């Protein structure tokens, strides 16, 4: 399926819609109104309608949205209809927790390889996932055709690992390190900064405590 260019903010909300639609389908609900959807996912209904409008006519006026067909549509958009293997580099505190989590249930995401420089971690299975020596990054990623990597190494090593990943042909990096990585423009980087998220939350609590937008 080809995906049209949509705003990043819309793209970020798609997994939220997808998760809620999965819940509805499991609860055997056949249709949902934009108001119901809005209340459940905490996104105002005008935004939902605008988000959905990028994909054409998804609902019918007065009927709402058909849960099964909307879910099928988002499954395709989010590539949830085929298994996506990702790798993880840096099997320390955070990396180990993520290996243990491994995106169970209802997602098509799997961490299928991990890497670390520590010899005692290499060539072992951790939480069911093989850990390879960091020297094997390029070879393993290419052999296993993995092009998305979760980066959980200390900040001082993040850029050197990112360079290795780029060389291995990786197309996306989920970066947990505090370093802003420098990569070619065809490589997507998503930064996860917990401090930033917490500060944003505190800001919203202080400024929008009545939950109004
Ligand atoms: N621990 C947390 O809660 C947390 C939260 C948010 C962000 N972070 C960030 O995530 C990163 C990891 O944090 P942590 O607490 O798990 O650190 P950690 O020191 O416990 O683990 C880092 C791991 O990376 C490995 N490593 C180092 N250089 C490597 C390389 N070149 N190739 C492969 N592996 C390499 C180390 O051997 C170690 O096992 C840091 O950048 C940190 O700032 C951590």
Question: Could you characterize what this model shows?
Answer:
The protein starts with 7 loop residues before the first helix and ends in a 6-residue tail after the last helix. The longest helix has 19 residues, at 8-26. It has helices spanning 8-26, 34-41, 45-53, 67-77, 93-101, 137-143, 155-167, 194-207; strands at 31-32, 65-66, 84-89, 109-116, 124-126, 129-133, 148-151, 172-175, 188-191. It has 213 residues and is α/β, with parallel strands linked by helices. The protein contains eight helices and nine strands. The chain folds into two domains: 8-77, Winged helix-like DNA-binding domain superfamily/Winged helix DNA-binding domain (Arc Repressor Mutant, subunit A); 84-195, 3-Layer(aba) Sandwich (Rossmann fold). 42% of the residues lie in helices and 18% in strands. Helix 1 (8-26) packs across helix 4. Strand 7, helix 7 (155-167) and strand 8 (172-175) form a beta-alpha-beta unit. The strands form two sheets. The chain has a seven-stranded mixed beta sheet. It has a two-stranded antiparallel sheet with strand order 1-2. The chain binds nicotinamide-adenine-dinucleotide. Nicotinamide-adenine-dinucleotide (NAD) is lined by residues 89-95, 115-118, 134, 152-155, 157, 160-161, 176-178, 194. Nicotinamide-adenine-dinucleotide (NAD) binds at residues 89-95, 115-118, 134, 152-155, 157, 160-161, 176-178, 194.
């Amino acid at each position: 399926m080809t995906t049209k260019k949509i705003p990043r903010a819309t793209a970020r909300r798609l997994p939220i819609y997808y998760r809620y639609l999965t819940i509805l389908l499991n609860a055997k609900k056949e249709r949902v109104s934009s108001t119901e959807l809005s209340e459940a996912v905490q996104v105002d209904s005008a935004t939902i309608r605008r988000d959905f409008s990028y994909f054409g006519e998804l609902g019918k006026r007065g009927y709402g949205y058909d849960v099964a067909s909307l879910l099928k549509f988002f499954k395709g958009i989010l590539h949830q209809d085929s298994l996506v293997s990702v790798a993880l580099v840096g099997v320390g505190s955070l990396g180990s927790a993520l290996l243990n989590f491994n995106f169970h249930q209802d997602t098509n995401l799997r961490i299928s390889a991990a890497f670390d420089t520590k010899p005692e971690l290499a060539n072992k299975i951790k939480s069911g996932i093989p850990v390879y020596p960091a020297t094997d990054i390029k070879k393993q990623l290419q052999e296993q055709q993995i092009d998305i990597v979760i980066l959980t190494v200390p900040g001082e090593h993040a850029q050197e690992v990112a360079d290795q990943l780029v060389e291995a042909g990786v197309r996306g990096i989920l970066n947990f390190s505090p370093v802003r990585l420098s990569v070619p423009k065809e490589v997507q980087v998503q930064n996860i900064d917990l401090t930033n998220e917490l500060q944003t939350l505190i800001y919203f609590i202080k400024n929008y405590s009545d939950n109004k937008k």
